[in-house]
């Protein structure tokens, strides 16, 4: 089974590069795109992550001037592809930070998948990780998975903790090979052409995050870092 993968730009923030790369790039402000990934195939419309909450979308003029891109509420992103929220049959979350599950509740017809450990941590997070807010998932009746699971034919979730306790890396089968969505917040700088994958700047266990990042970086396929600016507007099929 082959799918296409389209990053939908649901928001943008302007943090420090150090949020992405541990001990690297501190003091450098970046544009941080926030995506939901539309995956289509097998007669299904699937979302991996749901991006920034529709009510929080604010696009600085400077972002559009500098990048030629704009972000829009997820409903508008889907409309560009002739879809409405009720057309989404499956939602899979890489993890439950607010920039990855902000719109889950819009998808009332979908089955929602997440790793069991991630859901547990979201409901009882450590105070240091302020990126969890159960407000976004209160009404969701999640189907939880554990470990490595083929959620749909050709779509595999793999528990790869480090950035968060229950984050999962997604591998999606496409006609041109596997597309990999690392479960951790990252951009191009985390995946240099040579050398080690850079540990995510946000993590609950830096060693584990580093080790799993190397495993993800060694996978065969096209890696789409979850917050890479260079993947906006592209289709991977
Ligand atoms: Zn993120």
Automatic annotation (TrEMBL):
Matches recorded under SMART domains: Lactamase_B (SM00849)
Keyword Glycoprotein recorded: no
InterPro entries hit by this protein: MBL_superfamily_lactonases, Metallo-B-lactamas, RibonucZ/Hydroxyglut_hydro
Annotated GO MF terms: hydrolase activity; metal ion binding
Keyword vocabulary terms for this entry: Hydrolase, Metal-binding, Zinc
Domain of life: Bacteria
Cofactor(s) named in the record: Zn(2+)
A Pfam family that the UniProt record links to this protein: Lactamase_B
Domain (Metallo-beta-lactamase) ranges: 33-227
Signal peptide: none
Similarity-based family: Belongs to the metallo-beta-lactamase superfamily.
Full protein name: Metallo-beta-lactamase superfamily protein
Upper classification of the organism: Bacteria, Pseudomonadati, Thermodesulfobacteriota, Desulfovibrionia, Desulfovibrionales
